[in-house]
Amino acid sequence: MSFSKPNRSAATKTRTRVEPAPVSGMCVTCLDGCPGTCEVGRSAIRGREMIYPQPYGKVTAGADKDYPIDYSHFNIQGTCVGAHGIAADPDVATFPAVDCSTAVGRDGGIKLNFPVFTGAVGSTRIARVNWEDIAVGAAISGIIVVAGENICGMDKDAELKNGRIVRSPEMERRVNAFKQWYDGKGGIIVQANVEDTSLGVPEYVIEKLGIEIFELKWGQGAKDIGGEVKLSTMERARQLQERGYIVLPDPSSPAAERAFASGGITEFERHSRLGMVTEEGFYREVERLRKLGAKYVTLKTGAYRPADLARAIRFASNAQIDLLTIDGAGGGTGMSPWRMMNEWGIPTVYLEALTYRMCEQLRAQGDYVPPIAIAGGLCLEDHIFKALALGAPFVKAICLGRALMAAAMVGKNSGKTALEKGQKEETQDSEQVFLNLFAVGAQLKERFGSDFKRLPAGAIGLYSYVDRLKQGLQQLMAGARKFSLRYIDRNDLVSLTREASDVSGIPYVMESDRELVEEIISGNGQASVRVAGAH
């Protein structure tokens, strides 16, 4: 069985002419005369452009590799006995009574209405265009939105003095969009990478814009290099090169200038540098951010080798940071090398299983275990439950990168279409259009009154998606008789295969509850009313 699909993908807009060879992915018979529809053929014409998902700025992409183990290899355990966190009374223990709120931070001071947050919405075009919808949607949902790396550096109107950011209209826009609707639940995180730190972004956003949650970034699950975007003009390429970014081809080269002028190349790539992690350097930066005024300091790490995961967890423990987000391979991206997304890194389930073991060791040693968040290809309420359970009690929240963005984009575009139709018919105002379009419209109208019409359509779409996730999670939790997130544990899962059990430590389904089953069948004591894994 081949897990990969090399040499052709919808993400690179390529295909093979006939059935491909399973190892190389090339057509079994490569025809002299074929126009070159596969990645090899397209690369002969467009070269390095074919490394990335396409079209840039209009898509997010998720890996299409079939990893040996994913969250579908686990099922959620249900029970008809008892209740945790509420009276075991059918009139009280109803699924709408399930509490899906959570908190992160050393002091538990970051409260969330629902245990999810956005992926890093950074400097790519698709992130910039959809920011307001995502940020406002997060604010009214009571979840966290993450302003990703390179926002200030990519701001064409940013003002620099001595190579340091003194003002970024784009960052101001992003922060203000969220804060206008923020009501105390959730929050906004700003990330920094190598270039952001060099440009003084931490100082700017903490001291000038009042950002309280700041995130250091070691990487992500989609790639093991720095972030990248595409640039369509020579002026932008040169501007960003002057700001310290790696730009390819070199826009200062006469050859690149001629090629761009003639149409031989149509774009440039902007790349961020690799971060170089050291233990003492990490501690110094965490302390520096706290002295600058950051109330909470978090860390985002990627799908690196197990030793690097151990470093992230150990360093985060020593520095007593407020949240550690661990991003597994196979998730999503706005622009990452496509083959890298599929063939690099530790997939999410494996990474979370390793995380659980390491956190268990920390706890056994009596050390501080930071709140953990898991990211990497998660989408719906069963994923949320399984990821919380697999890493319980350490995992407190789930990052839904592509999914939350998709909800915002669909809401935005559906709202635009509905408004255009309403304007043509001249029968409805914009408020009534949204009330008719969105199932949560009446709910939000009651909550916000006259301000309802100010909500971006994409924000309503994101809120609607989170509302659906909440009810779905409540139903799953009620079926497991867990009426608060803190009661979800690893006993709420079973492995459907031996391999999934070996990787995760979750019992194989045919061995689950074995001891309790024997007690019940033998009629021993009160086993008939005991709940497996009862707290």
Beta-strand segment tally: 17
State the CATH superfamily name of the largest domain: Aldolase class I
Q: Which strand order does the major sheet show?
A: 4-5-8-9-13-14-15-16
- Number of domain modules: 3
Provide mean pLDDT, rounded: 94
Give the overall shape, derived from the CA principal axes. globular
CATH class of the largest domain reads Alpha Beta
Oligomeric state, counting identical vs distinct chains:
single chain
Helix content: 25-40%
Distance between the termini: 42 Å
Number of helices: 20
Might you state the CATH topology name of the largest domain? TIM Barrel
Radius of gyration: 25 Å
Question: Which second-level CATH architecture of the largest domain applies?
Answer: Alpha-Beta Barrel
The main sheet comes to:
8 strands, parallel, barrel
Kindly name the structural category.
Answer: alpha/beta
Q: Runs with pLDDT <50, length 5+? A: none
Our estimate of the beta-strand percent is 5-15%
Describe it for me?
By secondary structure, this protein is an alpha/beta fold. It has three domains: 10-51, no CATH class; 59-222 and 278-535, TIM Barrel; 228-271, no CATH class. The protein is built from 20 helices and 17 strands. It has helices at residues 39-46, 125-129, 131-141, 151-154, 169-179, 194-199, 201-208, 234-242, 254-262, 279-292, 306-319, 338-343, 348-364, 381-390, 401-425, 430-437, 441-448, 457-479, 498-504, 514-522; strands spanning 74-76, 102-104, 110-112, 116-121, 144-147, 159-161, 164-167, 187-192, 213-217, 228-231, 246-248, 268-271, 296-301, 323-327, 372-375, 395-399, 493-495. The strands form five sheets. It has an eight-stranded parallel barrel with strand order 4-5-8-9-13-14-15-16, surrounded by eight helices. Strand 15 (372-375), helix 14 and strand 16 (395-399) form a beta-alpha-beta unit. Helix 3 packs across helix 18 (457-479). The radius of gyration is 25 Å and the shape is globular. The model has no long low-confidence stretch (mean pLDDT 94).
